[in-house]
UniProtKB/TrEMBL annotation, chain B:
It comes from Salipiger bermudensis (strain DSM 26914 / JCM 13377 / KCTC 12554 / HTCC2601). Residues 74-146 form the Oxidoreductase molybdopterin-binding domain. Residues 1-26 form the signal peptide. It holds the Pfam family Oxidored_molyb. This is Oxidoreductase molybdopterin-binding domain-containing protein. Keywords: Signal.
Amino acid sequence: MTLATGFRRTGRAVLTVLALLCLLAIAVLVREVVKELKFLSSASSDNVHWTLSQAEVEFLEFRNAVNWARTAPETPLSSVIVEFDVFYSRTSTLANGSLYSSLREDPAFDAPLTEVRDRLNAMIPLIDGPRDELRANLDDLAAQADEMRVLVRKIATTGLQHFALESDELRTSVAVTLLRLAVLTGLLLLALAALLMHARRTAQQTEKRGKELAIAYARLNTILNTSLDAVVVTDTTGRIQNFNPAAERIFDCRLKDVRGKRVGDIIVPEHLRDAHEAGMARFAADGEHRVIGQGRVKLEAMRSNGETFPVELAIETAHAGDEQLMVAFLRDISHRLAAENELVQARDKALAGEQAKAEFLAMMTHEIRTPLNGILGNLSLMEDTKLSSDQSRYMRNMKISGELLMRHVDAVLDVARFESGADKAQEDVTHLGHLFQDIVDSQTSAAHAHGNALQWGWVGTPEEWVEVDSSRLQQILLNLVGNAIKFTREGRISIEAEVIEQGEPAKIEIRVSDTGSGIAEGDLARIFEDFQTVSHQVSDSVGGTGLGLGIVRRFVQAMDGVIGVESTLGEGSTFWLRIPVLPVERPVEDSGAGPESEAPSDLEILLVEDNDINMQLAYEVLVGMGHHVTEARNGQEAVDITAKRPFDLILMDIRMPVMDGLTATKMIREGDGPNWNAPIVAFSANVLPEAKDRFAAAGMSDFLGKPLQRTELAQIIVRFCAGRDRRVKLDGATPLLVEQKESPMEKLRNRYMSETSSLFEWLAGLPEDTHAIADRAHQIAGSAAAFGQPGVREALLLVEQAAEAGDREDLVVAISEAQAAWKAAPEPSLVG
Amino acid sequence: MYTLTERFTRVAALLLLLLGATSVAAGELEGPTGPVLLTISGDIENTNGDGTAAFDLDMLRALGATDVTTETIWTPGTITFTGVELKTLLDHVGATGSEIDATAINDYTVVIPVSDAVEEGPIVAYEMDGKLMSRRDKGPLWLIYPYSSNAEYRTEVIYSRSIWQLDRMAIR
């Protein structure tokens, strides 16, 4: 109850009490008035004034009769007697009548009356006596009457005064009563008026509330009627009270047909009816509810034709007066579920597509790289054989194509690896100056080939030793510099590094600028996207996957850096990147003992591989490292062999016929052979992280990617086999010394070294035969890549180009660049 | 055409008239033998000489006595009055007027409508508490209404009509 209502109620009560009090008082007064009116109307009063004056009149009549009898002696005395009796009778009335009882209390009235009565009584014997005696005493009677006259007069006047006063009092009393009555009536009227006003206001409020209620009701009805959800109202026993139009539509039955029926029979499907009844019984028994008030619940409902369909249901209880109601909101979700199913299917399809993409990438890794590796490796080997000049040219073309294909595949794989998160940032301590110098060194020949000058330098104070992901930074700069070289002719390419923010980490900006063709403004926005290539008249010859800058962007972002480009068409471009680096102290020089030097030799290694070429390549690398290699062609063979003799290391391909590497690994681990705890290293082209997880789950110790990298292999051997290089001696067998003569790999390497040296010696003399120069440069260029000297290869390819073009000046420059590259190149080693 | 009842009524009235004629001379009342207490004059059918009807106490008693027990404003206590009903008296004299001029021995006169003369109504009393009333006690005749039994008789008008020492009535 609000305060205002409280006041209103109190006011109403006060008014009512007031009115009741007025009524009561009026009733009392009315009773009073009626009484007085009664008194006035029925009262007892005769005409007292007249009676009193009549007494005087009758006395005078009596006196006259006496006097008359005295003057006329012959008249009979009867009139004297009669007048006496009449007067006597009157005095009796005054003395005895109840009307005069109050008057008699006044001595001024009572005393003369008593005296008059006494005198009259004294006269009686004379009056009733003989007439003669009466006549003889007439004078005496007259004398007495004279005396009584004053008394009678006094009686009359006193009585009149008394009754006049009484009348006055009565009038006053009536007037007062009437006044009171008037006042009270006025008050009552006021109270009634107030009550009336109050009642009117209440009535107005009631009317207003009624209207509001009607509006609210209409609104509610509109909501109910226009609701798209079915609304079903039942009592607590489940009898339908209301069924909105949406419910009629959804359940296909009319309200008039279902009102009062049990909701369970109308909309609950038969298989849910028992549960429904049990729920209703629970609710009826102890108010327990599992669905009510629980929000939306998914259930099935039934249409009038018996069809069941899924609904979303929410039930609440409500009170309407004393009655408890259950209100159910139902939504037909068959369409939604259908749509959801479609979405799920679409998503599944999309996921399947993603899966297919992932599988495709895996296929790229394995099915393309593996054979490609084989092709390239064999091409390298084939170069060592005797070839005709045509064959050499075809070989050269094949190698160029193959290497290009390998680069493309690698680019795609880089993206895939990066996207899958396989490629984790690895920070190491790096000398930035050396890093830049290496890049300049390796790219100089390529830059010169297009007539470009390539240089680098610090702007401001250098920050040389830093902790940074150097391999990524290297890749980024190589890519940017490579692009700059591609799109610049006879120009200048510069790498500038500048510390733009001191601190830990500090921030450096690296700018790769060229004076090349520049990039159209419209293309600037998209060049960092994947698979974007910019058509360009200068570089028709320069193709690509369009992934280069996409990878660069990913790498920069992975290093918490930003990359951007500014360019003017026809004037050149500047690619800049800002990355955080952690400045460090110059590290103490390592003693220089590389893993290679610690690597144990003479190990028993089982190589499980189904691909002949890969098998041969790996075999030669391992034998070249001084190990004994046993070959197995598939998982089953591996299992059989490992059951018989122990191995220091097992290299296991994954995809193989008969039995795959994972199964074989499991069998070896679970078997009781001598190799149950030997290190088994996966040897696969599939380098995606989930693949590595699978390998580990199968019991594999580590992972070695294809193509086989000597350094990685060496690291694996050190990790698992350090200190096992005496196995052969422990076995008690005569040490089977590796043949003193060179291994095939050594032979290849030595031959490459000597051929390259002789080429450069020959070139130093600037031979005239440009064709020969082109041929020989090309031949060595093809070998250089296989021996891990891409810089030499690039430089020699430029020599070849210059030679074929017949441009002597270019050729001289190219030759000098190539010599520099050869001097700067790492020790040749056969890759993969 | 007369109904049976009407015819019977007329025959009965005729018979009564004839019977009255045999006991009392038609329109002729017996004469008083004692002192005359009341003389009725005016529009009356039955007289006993000189166009008036004079009554002595015996004649009044002969008309039948009625007791009225009541209080009055003029007397102390409750009193039983005995007398003849005014209606009986007027019927007896065959009064045809509508008003009565009632006069007391001292010539005090009030006008009483004949309509007051009803059964259970006023009586012409001659006894008070079983005693004849002397002239000194408002006798010998006093027109008494039954004041106590009917509130309508307790009004000033009725009190003024309650004439005592009554000795004449003129019907008009």
